[in-house]
Specification:
- The structure is a homodimer.
- Chain A has about 150 residues and is mainly alpha-helical.
- Chain A is about 65% helix and about 5% strand.
- Chain A has six helices and two strands.
- The first copy, chain A, has helices at about 10-30, 35-50, 55-60, 65-75, 100-120, 125-150; strands spanning about 80-85, 95.
- In chain A, strands 1-2 form a two-stranded antiparallel ribbon.
- In chain A, β1 (about 80-85) and β2 form a beta hairpin.
- Chain A starts with 10 loop residues before the first helix and ends with a helix.
- The mean pLDDT of chain A is about 95.
- Chains A and B meet through α1, α2, α5 and α6 of A and α1, α2, α5 and α6 of B.
- Chain A binds a DNA duplex (30 and 30 nucleotides) through α4.
Chain lengths: ~150, ~150
DNA sequence: AGTTATTATTATCATTTGCAAGTAATTCCG
DNA sequence: CGGAATTACTTGCAAATGATAATAATAACT
């Protein structure tokens, strides 16, 4: 007999629920600007650090490589990003924001910041720092395990 | 000029990354049993509390209602759950696990528990409790805001 | 009771997604 | 050096998804 999982105390469940909810709320707000959640993730990543290659971006946005490949083509057609071959490695792409893309991230960013603040309401500065530290830790743990598994 | 968002300190990003990663790892392990992540979420929810209606389940699993409707039909065809009209409210469904469904959750649950443990490695019992409490708080904050918005 | 409103569920259709196979560039190694 | 293996990305295709419209049952109101 297996013990039942208590959902309100089950980390994957809590992560999924909080993550999906904040994504959905943000998403509805920025939809009028023509921004979808996957697009936003790409824009945000490129804002944060320009000149990404595709694989790197897929890893960081949690978007499947083939899905992302099509997404960046679409985003280039919309003049939000530029896709060119990397100089160093002719297989790789170099993805960068256009001015139009930059403008769009800057338009959407306040909504993201608003929802982050809203989510953290009632938590002290120290608690928030702890929460984020632990989430980074959690991700690091998973990442390390995945890497080890890939090794074998 | 808008200040750039620091990704490694941005809650929605941390939530998404951790949540997606743990979901993906778990998912690969249980795929051989014919369990997908959405299916797992439904099974887990019904394991936790039997006799759900569809809307309630959609809310709790973060699965879109129309998507979920098809999913539960498919799961009934696989004899994992039973779908019947609720006695109390003739509009609603009453969804329950079959013995086969129960067996399947019990097969998959150890993987879920394993990854939860893995994710929390290096955190003290007290820290874990704090993390979960804050995640519930975060979700509650978002939920409350959404409810208030819907009111107006 | 009859009409309207509300809530819950399903069907349809266009789009998105992800797996698997394919292509091209680069690196490895004899 | 040169062919095999690896890496980076793209594409084809079947399945999953989500928005919207339709349907059904119940509740609320007159």
């Amino acid at each position: 007999m297996v013990r039942r999982i208590e959902l309100s105390d089950f980390l994957p469940y809590l992560l999924n629920r909080a993550g999906m909810r904040i994504g959905a709320m943000f998403s509805r707000d920025v939809a009028p600007y023509g921004v979808t959640l996957p697009m936003w993730r790409v824009l945000l990543e490129l804002w944060h650090k320009d000149d990404h290659r595709l694989g790197e971006l897929a890893e960081r946005t949690s978007i499947d490589l083939s899905t992302l490949s099509r997404l960046v083509v679409a985003m280039q057609r919309k003049r939000l990003i530029v896709r060119r071959r990397s100089g160093e490695d002719g297989r790789a792409l170099s993805l960068t924001l256009t001015p139009k893309g930059l403008k769009l991230v800057e338009t959407a960013a306040p909504y993201a910041i608003y929802y982050e603040k809203l989510a953290m309401k009632g938590l002290s500065r120290a608690e928030v720092a702890e929460l984020k530290r632990m989430l980074r830790k959690v991700f690091g743990n998973l990442e390390r395990a995945a890497a080890q598994k890939a090794e074998n």
